[in-house]
Amino acid sequence: MATARGEVIVRFEKVSHDFTIRKPILREVDFSIRKGTKITLMGQNGAGKSTIFGLITKTHEPEDGQIHFQHGLTIALGRQVIPRDQMDLTVREFFQKVFPHKVYDIDPRIDAVLEVVNLVAPYEKVIRTFSGGQQARLLLASALIQNPDLLLLDEPTNNLDKEGIAHLTKFLIEYKKTVVVISHDAEFLNSFTQGVLYLDIHTHTIEQYVGNYSDVVAEISVRIEKENRKNAQLAKEIQENKDKANFFANKGGQMRMVAKRMRAKADELEEAKVEVRKEDKAIRSFRIPFQQGLIGEIVTISSLTVVKKHKPTERKVKVALRKNEHLLLAGPNGIGKSTLLQSLADGTAKGADIMSGVRIGYYRQDFSNLDFDSTVYEELASVLSTRIEEDVRKVAAGFLLSGEIFHSKIGTLSEGQKGLVAFARLVLLKPGLLILDEPTNHINFRHLPLIAEALSAYEGPMILVSHVPDFVAQIRIDEILDLNS
Q1: Which value, to the nearest 10 degrees, does the dihedral of the CA atoms of residues 401, 405, 410, 411 take?
Q2: Rounded mean pLDDT of 35-63?
Q3: Where are the domains of the chain?
Q4: Are 130 and 437 in contact (CB under 8 A)?
Q5: Which CATH class is domain 299-482?
Q6: What integer pLDDT is reported at residue 280 of this predicted model?
Q7: What are the counts of helices (DSSP H) followed by strands (DSSP E) for the chain?
Q8: Tell me, what's the pLDDT at 233?
Q9: Residues 23, 31: contact at Cβ < 8 Å?
Q10: Which CATH architecture fits 8-217?
């Protein structure tokens, strides 16, 4: 039977959930998702946004309260990253795996969704051979091929180039079903979302708003300003009553009763103060120290391989980077940017030469160069010749990695927190060459200006890949190498 547009399809009723015994995510949360709506799920890195998706997909069970689903509702999740155990699957095997049963007409279905995400991907090609941006399109396509009633997208613009984001935006604007998106890309979110669910990391509650991302940010700002003004006025009245109470108390006799009433009034006003919504914490300003003693051309590149229409071609270039020289590597998804960065980092790049003894700081977009079985402390301390826990703790705290997170395994962190670990690791490493592949992926927007400032101030040679123009515009770039030209 047809259902009316706007009917509630998912409802959280007094839901509480702890990711671990000591890490609360939700506290008696109530919210609903209506049919046909397009919603943004916002919150600080590590607040538990992906865990909420896990509750909706029933990967997790709430510890208290209930989650109600419309009967027969189908749900598909477009994840942030392809699981490591699926990287050696072929394209056909990868898509077949999303279904609980054998699909005999899988090939035409694959063709249809690959057209939607604007990707050419031969059936027998292995997943790990695709670039980060191409893998992002495959993740989206793996959710779309299920044709769900509710589509959950976790950071879908990560690794996508400008064309890929435009294609995804157009699709979502025209999409007739329900969508909930986790993203830190304000421009992308403003283009199609109609409401926001804000997960507050401090209160572990969800605030529900109508409007796009910018509308909500403006509404919250106005509310905070109003609440601060009210609290300031109440604080003034409280102090006046306390001063009067002290004055009358010293008079003795009947005046003590007046003093008692003044104190009671002060207590009453104190209770009337509004708990102002805490803003997301930003990381502290930081610098990535440059390895001392390096002089001359630290890295040179005379040739590299570009990939067009799945065909690799060698191209002659002339790149020589010294101290304080920053290079932006540009080009569309799949052309070979990440492959070049990885080969530079592991010393296998043909046509490139890196000065002997240079410590390479490599920010890899999938964080696979971090040891997921190590704790944050162990991972950060591993780059130091002498482990001094106090130094590691100080750097970690600047990246919001203190408390229980400090001794948590990397694999248990959110993708945004892994990114912060990667930056903290660079600070402790003191690299002589900085290689960064999409360093804005998964990172809370509040941190980005501080990260851009640190990259601009880095005194060594730097090679950067980023598809986020606003971020790149904040960084000092001395040279651009466009692989597509």
Answers
A1: -130
A2: 87
A3: 8-217, 223-272, 299-482
A4: no
A5: alpha beta
A6: 61
A7: 14, 17
A8: 82
A9: no
A10: 3-Layer(aba) Sandwich (3.40)
